[in-house]
Structures
1.
Amino acid sequence: MSLAVSPAQTMETKRHAPLHLPMIIPAIIISILSLIPLGFIVWIAITSGWDTVRDLVLRPKVAELLFNTLILVALTLPIAIALTVSLAWLIERTNLPFARLWSWLMVAPLAIPAFVHSYAWASVMPTLHGLPGAVMVSILAYFPFLYLPIAAQLRRLDPTLEETAASLGHTPIAIFITVILPQLRLAICGGALLIGLHLLAEYGLFVLMRFDTFATAIVDQFQAVYNGPAANLLGGVLVLLCLVLLRLEVFLRGDERYARVGSGAARHAPKWRLGAFTWIAALLPTALTLLAVGVPIFTLTRWLISGGAGVWRLDGIVPALVQTAALAVGGALITTLAALPIAWLSIRAPSRVQRALEACHYYVGALPGVIVALALVTITVRVALPLYQTMATLLLAYLLMFLPRALVGLRASIAQAPIELERAAVSLGKPPLVAIWKTTLRLAAPGAAASAALVALGIANELTGTLMLAPNGTRTLAMRFWSYTSELNFAAAAPYAVLMVVLSLPLVLLLRLEADRESKP
Amino acid sequence: MSFVTLDNVTKRYGKSVAVTGLNLTVPAGSRTAIVGPSGSGKTTLLRLIAGFESPDQGSIALGDTMLAEGTMSVPAHRRGIGYVAQEGALFPHLTLAANIGFGIARNSPDRHARIAELMQQVGLAPSMHDRRPHQLSGGQQQRVALARAMARQPKLMLLDEPFSALDAGLREAMRDMVGDVLSTAGITTILVTHDQAEALSFADHLAVLRDGVVVQAGPPQDLYLRPKDAQTARFLGDAIILQARLEDGFAHTILGSVPTDTPSRRGNATIMLRPEQLELTSAGQTDPSSTTSLGRIVGRTFRGSTWRLLIEHLPASSAGLRLPSLALETSSIFTIETPSLAPLEIGATVGIQIVGTAHILA
């Protein structure tokens, strides 16, 4: 995504440095805010003292959590990778019937929040729990994160490479292993990292599957003892796990370039004929659709029917909807605004300082919501008590969690607005900020709106951080759903789940269209 | 001896027909060029021979081996035919050496020696061994692609416009290099290109493809001087096409009379001359009794070593010959290149003399 800057341009940006000052200062402020959760963990580790750390971290319970979390990741990722690579290959590269329909259905599970997947399975099959349940529901809830990039990359592959390999005597299977798979490496690493981070951060899914991970243990500790050192130190271990995962991905990804060498227009790869295997092959996407989309829809329908009109208690639903919408829209506006300075700088004035600031923005996005919440609780309690359990703190948490999401979309849309317009506006006597506002931001508005929508949808389904930080009396859709589910009142929870799914549908549409656009050669 | 034989091959994509009833023989040890405008089916033809596609009808044979016949088709990986794609198609995830060694068995004892030998054959320095494809220039990528295709010692090599992505200067050098390397190795080669100059200079056997059929095949010089029809004539180079009356082995045209390559033909016909068959003389030196006709220079473009002149033919006022409908096919204007040493000014009148023989088209 980095833009090449010619020497002439760099000189010019230096000469016009004052133009950037109004953007650099807010970018620095946001970066410092972004570092709060990480700084909090470091501070906890330093101030706790070795004895506390030994007492609270080096104990069998933590070892069990560590084992659980690691085995969860170690089982989920390979299965999900094998499954999605086969699915994507079947759908993109063979004559499997209804390929277009399947390719949409493979993204559809994203419209269902992970804890709703879990809720559906818990009520359909109460015996499913522990590690097998956690692995299965995780795969069903998160496999689209792998499917999207892998399918896009498969569409982008240059078929000439495969033909060349065939002319060099490689069998189709050998070609798949030596030519196709290596080119999917980046897509697999990226998708697997995303799933891995979700596995570390997810709370609701694993509670319903009765499977203890660091995230569930932290929330439990936190709810037992507010601001206790135990939760904070567990958070420290969780952050370490996240860092290990991030490093592992960087290591596995390598720094190689897998783009096409050369430029010619890529042909579409020929599709393999499945012949007699067609119907056997069609079983895979059918089964996955039934499990990942069919089961939640079936469960929700069943609860809605058995609950009848009684579960649509408007005195509960309407306030939850209004609160969720208000938080989502407010949070999205603040987050998009906060992402603006660094997004603008990364396009208009790339530099080492800017890259460091941007890294700060991105790092927090990789940290689980529990960590952000823990940090904000501790800091408000110790330093700024009036802010404890206020809307302001909750919105700040959303800002920190969803900043990277806003940044990606904003950068792309700012990159499409020509810098000449800004310069023309300045030369016509507009002050720098006004010039940016009237030209670039005007043109970037549609893209900014799309990324704000992504943030809003993320906030609407956020559970963990909201549970920990929301002021008394706050009842979002996710919170309502969660409290009914915790009381095992599955019927009363169903309307809230349906509303969350409906709200998430646009997100799925956006993600899918984005992937389509990127895979155009 | 024919080495590759295509017999009545047809290939359709949905409703559009790419190749239809195509017959082609490629002599053993030859450098065959298949040339045609885009959409003529030449790339499909190459892909059929390589085995990336199978024909709907007809048969393809390599020596005594049948590669495709009816519904039977030997898959590409069992054909042992070398293939170099348009932009090299190097595997981006492998080093230069791993790319070249891709077709050599991993446990083969002489793998490293073979790679080194191939690199030397195509002129790649040993120091580039561990480079990645994106660190190579266009020419180097093509060298790697050629070495990689030669690694399995194929008897037949297919080149799919391998030089078209290179810039002009490099293109010629690469073409010569590739031709030399393949000839030395004794590999029969088929080159597909839309560039007639490239085809003429590379090949010792040329096939012109149009609308999915081979219009004409043979030695390049033959095709250049004796094309079957006006379209082929123009495709292979600038051509001057005239109406003529044939008599006693001569073609009488508005540009004068010229011997024909088929003396027995009589009556009206269309003939073709290559521009280099026209010699210009200054009008003052023209001998009025000769067969010279007159033209006027109406435009010129400097091209370095030559001038490209736009010449309008002047109707012969003194010539006693009144020929029916002997106009130039399009208009009475044609272009000729002359050495730039003696520039001719716009407006000058020149004498036009025809040398060589005229080729009768139809």
2.
Amino acid sequence: MSITTPVSRRSFLIGSASAIGGLSLGFHVPFAGAAPAKTAQEVNAWVVVQPDDTVVIRIARSEMGQGTLTGLAQLVAEELECDWSKVTTEYPTPGQNLARNRVWGNFSTGGSRGIRESHEYVRQGGAVAREMLISAAAAQWKVPANECFAANSVITHRPSNRKVTFGKVATAAASVTPPKDVALKDPKQWKIAGKPLARLDTVDKLTGKQIYGTDLQLPGMLNATVRACPHFGGKVKSFDAAAITSRKGVRKVLQIDDATLAVVADTWWQAKTAMDALPVVWDEGPNKDMSSESIAEMLKGGLEAQDAFVQTTVGDAPGTLAKAKKTISAVYAYPYQNHATMEPMNATARYTPEKCEVWVPTQNGEASLAAAAEAAGLPVEKCEVYKLHLGGGFGRRGMQDYVRQAVLIAKQMPGTPIKMIWTREEDMLHGMYHPTTQCKLTGALDDEGNLTALHMRISGQSILAAVRPQGMQGGKDPVVFQGLNLTGDEGHLGYTVPNLLIDHAMRNPAVPPGFWRGVNLNQNAVYMECFIDELAHAAGVDPLQFRRKLMKNHPKHLAVLEAVAKGIGWETPAEKGRHRGLAQIMGFGSYVAAAAEVSVTDGQLKIHRIVAATDAGHIVNPAQVERQVEGSFVYGLSAALFGECTVQGGRMVEDNFHTYQVMKMAEMPAVETHIVPSGGFWGGVGEPTIAVAAPAVLNALFAATGKRIRTLPLKKHSLA
Amino acid sequence: MARLNINGTTREIEVDPDTPLLWVLREQAGLTGSKYGCGVAQCGACTVHIDGNPVRSCVLPVSGLTAEQKITTIEGLSKDGSHPVQQAWLKLDVPQCGYCQSGMIMAAAALLQTNPKPTDADIDAHITNICRCGTYNRVREAIKQAAAGLPAKQST
């Protein structure tokens, strides 16, 4: 890799962004300074081959650290039969997707769907391109195509042993009629997919060369920051622009909507410090008395309310519970969480009445395009979005509020590119928060310690009601029940309970909710897996034995649980002073489990070891799966140990990492990952394991201390 | 006006003296490898070396620096990514989103400079950077491999 200067990167970005039909906004430095766009040949939408045999694979989904870029490229390359060492990647733009009848399908990158939703058509893309390349070579040699085969970017005519590389026939291949329905390989035959290959996007992240949205430079660009009313539902009452307009570098002070002010300056630091100095009076709006306490009270009311949406029913749980000799009941609660991506929200926009362009780290390029068009007031055909690698997403960058803001600012300064970056404080105060819920669980045990009935009442916030109302089913939010359904990929229960009722009393506080990595599986796993542990202890049965009895009909759930039990050594005593806990759940198409080993000394929790298991059906890159599983414990345990956004006066209290503490190196346990694919299905990987992190540790904590923690985060409880 | 020695070159930079070093690096010097994460010295994404010591540049006004002090950023750690820490990172394929990694690498390189064989406790105490993707265990392993100076095992 050569070191490029900011200037050459700049010209590269602009040059490639305007290239049509060839490369879009590339993100690999090999292109910098070169001009491959002019000679590269698109074989089909997914595959571009350069004369030097470099294969450019188009990736529709966004890379935010989860490794989907590498995994999707492996799937295309596997079918293409290309030389992996010559593979590079690029993002097609959302505008190109629209213009080409959505040839790349869905751009949305969330719900651990990157691979599990697109594996079939991306492999088809690679397979079809391979057949087109073979046909072109066969035509050149005037031999039947079925006498030729492709391997390692070389096409060979078997009878004559003639050979030609992909780069030599790519142009001819592009005009071959694409075959329909090419047979895909059995995953057992994979040579590139399924292997623990290194990521394609590592090198530039080691030298500071990787360009994130915050790093973008465009000619004539100005910098901006925003401040929105911190009170949810509040507005700007007044502000004194004159107080800061004469500050050095300040170009414009403006209000972009009812609640939001912006400062544009030569540098971001000038914009930020000017904003800090801007006198503002907020109209605190209708929610100024809202607090974490008032929200908790509201949700508490839902635990016994009659107005609940029923999702899961088996037998007669209420009747059985009413007659049961022994019932156990507990109430749990899960707080608001902020995504806290390391890269704060940002977007760069350039507006003219003829064209609006946005450069943005986004989990959904098409939604960014729609948001840009709406904010610009232009038809979508006159807008374009160039995606950049994300400095973390976790669901936050599926929302488009920051794209809208950047365009609204740019619209006030036509022709000037405006890079808008939020402060960390803005990011913390204007999240799309992991929703808050409470849950009351009541279970009945018979004389033999069998679970005969269970009622699980969830009370709290719906994400869909706020962000995707079209996904609601007759007022019910089905996503609330992730992991608690009787069937389905988004999470079906691993327990057979003869009398079961799971319902939801929807209570929506005026705090904007969003999809937060793991979504509702997170709290549902805490509720279910900790309560199952409570039932086991009440029945006087070992928690693993107790679960085994309930899981006879759920072999995939049980297999991952057995894998972690074996890995942690459940059947053998732990070292003195150490204690263990288990959890399992199914969600995002995959079966996951975790076992934790902890100790508590002088009230201090130490997590010594985590064993995790994942069955995602087919595994595209085990090395990346391992990283996602490890990372899931950082995200899940940060929430369990420290994570809480507190509401006071209708706004969030925590505004930076000194108050919104997250896990660091010293708290990080060793994680041993078992990948146990059973094949036959395609599950997600980025999210499900987060859900088992907290309950495994909480159950181990109970084993260690006898204290049942039912309200997160742990930092609020004394363990002494 | 500030006179700063950045990656071996002394530059005169026209800037308000209160400006934190991070923003001078990013906006005046064109070195965007050092990242803004929190602005309050909590996350470490802005970590650079000053005379070899790790410093959180987001809270250090350039007025506090002299041209005699050597500032090293991720761009200046090595010419070609060949620093042993970068090499260990490459072999273990450490980064996920990568945003925090410049700061992580700079913090790790500074630790190894003063403590060539850090223990786990040393690593815990000195690497206090935040990573939200969850690369900590690989960061730890990469520091140990860089310390060992041995060929790192292939990442799996």
3.
Amino acid sequence: MTAMLELAGLEKTLNRRKVLDGLTLDVAPGKSLVIIGGSGVGKSVTIKSAIGIMRPDAGSVRIDGEDFLALDRVGRERAVRKIGMLFQGGALFDSLTIWENVAFRLLYADSVPRKEARERAVEVMRKVRLAPDFANLRPVELSGGMQKRAALARAIIGAPKLIFFDEPTTGLDPITADAINDLIVEMVKELGSAAVSITHDMASARKIADEIAMIYQGKIIWRGPARDVDASGNAYVDQFVRGSADGPIQAVV
Amino acid sequence: MTPFQQIGRATLATLREAGRFALFAGRAVAACFSPPFYLSQIWRQALQIGYFSLPVVGLTAVFIGAALALNIFVGGARFNAESFVPNIVVLGITRELGPVLAGLMLAGRVSAGIAAEMGTMRVTEQIDAMTTLSTDPFRFLVAPRVIAATLCLPLLVIVADIIGVMGGYLVATRSLDFNGAIYIRNTFNFVENADVILGLIKAAAFGFIIAAVGAYQGYNSSGGALGVGRAATNAVVASAVLILASNYLITALYVE
């Protein structure tokens, strides 16, 4: 079966520091992979390289079998339609209402009439437990958890085959974080999409992952089923899962 | 580092920045002429840049026209040329002060606003989000601002020309004992189409500069609130300098 996402030999240097050093991973359709790792090890750069926001210095990115980096603008826009992305801070557009944010892809990329786009946006808002009453509010009028729900609705409205989640629970209280995790699991199952998440939050990782991979110094150093993460036999993974300052990983303070 | 090295480094950095801006401006122009066109965004920006700038441009023009009339009257009196006030006011406003002052006012109001708005969108990942939603930020964000500013500034300058001349008229008829009908007749007899056209060409160029510089600074900002603030400041300074430099170039080319 063709992997939904294949990253091979990715390299990226930023400010003379090698952030990605031959990173390779793949995700099968319908599977949820969570990438864990400390701050500054290249998790965000991996996702940004995969979705075309950042161009890697070397390596290849294949989405649904297509060589993403070799595509022209039109080809990329077509390939990006298979992708949804939930950004860490939500990245909702301040100047638009919640329904316009959720329906952005429909309104501006697919030229769907406003009335129909609004109806579809409200329908997806209901799926992520965001009441239609919020449709006409601006992002600044919502709480952090509500903003995450709206951003999740925006990410899934196009029924993407591949969804990226960048620190989906950062900045949320534990109860709201758990609710967002439940929603992610539910939405990914409902859509049958492949999912790639990056997080520091082990509770979140355990809940949403089929598999967990750990990134360290720009490479994947361990990968296995989520149930095995507590008995990985890898000193780096053990230290990260324990959240201990003692171990081979030096804390950056 | 020696002074020569510092000068060399600064020169290279300036050239690098100029090259980057030229590439950005070229990409912005290409985005203006290739679909999809977001007409609702162009309309929205036209309101922001054009309509909401009317008060500041109008107020600037009326005071400049009035001050110009007073100065020309005082200066002209030294060689018995007081009667040329309407002629020189209309020439000065249409060819030079209307477009330049409207441009400089919009460099402060619009270019800084574009840089701050797009800079905030950049640091909060809204521009990245747009890319993942199959929408090209150059076509959705940059092109509408460039088109709106390039089209709206000439319209604003027409308004500034009329209000500036009226400012001169008010001072001349109320304080300097000019006859109103003669003042208006002299103004229309003296001004030529070429004078107005020169002002409008300048205005279109300044509009492009204001939007392109603001968008460039905002699009490339980084480093949180500090970076956004720096982008807004840079946008005002760079727009103002480019407006004044291009003002000279356009005038020189037109005169030749």
4.
Amino acid sequence: MTANSPSGALILTTLESVPGRRIVKHLGLVQGSTVRAKHLGRDIAAGLKNLVGGELKGYTELLQEARREATQRMAQDAIRKGANAVINIRFATSSLTQGAAELFVYGTAVQVE
Amino acid sequence: MDLLNGIIIFIILLGLGFFVGSATERKHFQDLRDREYRTRLLPILSIGAKTPIREADEAALVVGSVVIASDYFKTFVASWIQVFGGRIAVHETLLERGRREAILRMKEDAIAWKARKVVNVRLETAELGGQMADSGPIAIEIIAYGTAVK
């Protein structure tokens, strides 16, 4: 999953700068989040998988998809602010209740040369 | 009679967890070693946030994640160890597998983008609440992310 692809020209990094470019303007914090509930079918499959252990592929995909959506929302927020890059990106996950998790992405929107 | 049936089912589940679980684990470790060998040339660093990366002129966010669960046997052993305290070795290997897998997926993502290295790598662990709050089987999401540069 390269989170870069859906947002086109927007540069995303976890650094405090954009390599090869100079930051001309800071536009503030941007964020994107999504709350996902578990899918019943996937949950049953995961319950069976819990007997023998290993990777729960259904959940991996579910969370990857959710994280991509959160990243996209953050990117849209940044584009609305007139940014062409988001720096210092951080991911956070919190499980709200037994069946739901919040995926949260935030960073700083900037304009680079 | 009911008690006997219960014990038989318990032993079957425990055996299933032990044999299938350890076979999966052995296979996974083998797979991890192979893929780590193949991706050994891509350096990954946890520094880079504040250090300027002079030799780079392009950057991209790379992410790798995995959800990994314990098996019936591991859960049973862990619940016993929790009575007496001490190292829960069965869960240590589980987390090690998850972390190495997440890092590998991130590296493979970076290699697909033709990165020269990955800087400012962060690892994050989140517990996904299982069906039975405390004593039940655990499912853990591990994510590795960083900035690929070239």
